[in-house]
Amino acid sequence: MRIMVRELLGCAPLIRPGPNHPAERSRAIAATLRFSAADLLRCRFAISPAFETLSAVRLTLPHEAPGQHQKWLDAAAGRLDGIDLRPITLLQPRRGYTPDFLSPPPTEAAATFDDDLARIAATPPDRVAAEIARSLGDTPGAADSETGRLLRHDPAAALDTLTGLIRTAWHALVEPVWPRVRALLDADIGFQSRRLAEGGLDRLFAELHPTLRWQDNTLIRAYGDDDHRDLAGQGLVLLPSAFKWDQVVVVLDEPWQPTVIYPARGSGTLWQQISGTPDEALGRLIGRTRAALLIGLSAPATTTALARRHALAPATVSQHLTVLRDAGFVVGERHRHEIRYRRTPLGCAAIDKGQ
């Protein structure tokens, strides 16, 4: 089961009937992963180019908020001309199951895209058929759409189509920026590995993501769906992601080793050097860091979320937000137990002026 949550990062929650409906949010809902002594020794980091490619494709959908990736999306738009990604996007429901064979579980720390693609292409047809049917069932009408019928008709042909489209999406969307993305993911793993070495899982999970906390040998992911699992010696894979910038994803279905996918630290700085953007002029006016924070506030966010996104200390972010607030560019609003900052009309105008 893939459990997906959009919380505490200033984004609109992903909503479906049942326990995640706003009317039910007051109830204590969490996912818990309990570690044994063996699990404590089997935690590892990994990178998945195929997962990054799927996440990048998802950001091209009209209903998705690209957040800090808007510059990348604008730059990549021309490379998508004439490419029909519907067979992939139809299998990425807004809330529900995405086939696991489209992004195989990482079995090594740093597989290449070609490694991932070869494993996708080797998926047995019966598994392709079962996972496509499950995914299409999470979007009303998807199974009976023209694309849905084509995907269901012949699993082998569907696999060939999807493998080719993932290769095309990689070349169009991710490969041109992969050195930059890979450097970000490597830097995150280096930073988190040092925290793990310095203070164990207590230190690592204390700041890995606001929705995650560590207590009594149990990893707790707040909000989202209820799921409680003893890892029973399987251990845990920690997968930083650049393009899954606003979500924590917990993967518990086989063939995946239990995995937590989390937004990589510093992703808000990823596209600062893309040419032709208003960053330089705005940076000269209010300072580069404040400009990056202001541009990155595409949706309301907390100080903690902004600190992770821009790889800054929370105290540093707080100081810059105070200056931006005093200048009238942002305003802080209480949301339950936290303060979320958003741009004011003046802040939006300062960004628009440079475009």
Overview of this protein structure:
This protein has 14 helices and eleven strands. It is an alpha/beta fold. The chain has two domains: 1-264, no CATH class; 275-353, Orthogonal Bundle (Arc Repressor Mutant, subunit A), CATH 1.10.10. α7 (146-153) crosses α8 (155-174) and α10 (279-286) crosses α11. It is globular, with a radius of gyration of 20 Å. Residues 1-28 have low confidence and may be disordered.
Summarize the structure.
This protein has 355 residues and is α/β, with parallel strands linked by helices. It has 14 helices and eleven strands.
Approximately how much beta-strand content do the residues carry? 5-15%
Number of domains: 2
Count of runs of 4 or more consecutive helical residues: 14
- Give, in spatial order, the strands making up the sheet with the most strands: 1-8-9-7-3
**Termini separation:** 42 Å
What oligomeric state is this? single chain
Helical proportion? 40-55%
Low-confidence stretches: 1-28
Output mean pLDDT: 82
Spell out the key features of this protein.
355 residues; alpha/beta; Arc Repressor Mutant, subunit A
Set out the fold topology.
Blueprint: E1 2-5, E2 30-34, H1 37-40, E3 43-45, H2 49-58, H3 70-76, H4 86-89, H5 113-121, H6 125-136, H7 146-153, H8 155-174, H9 178-207, E4 212-215, E5 218-222, E6 227-230, E7 236-241, E8 248-251, E9 259-263, H10 279-286, H11 288-296, H12 303-310, H13 314-326, E10 330-335, E11 338-343, H14 345-353
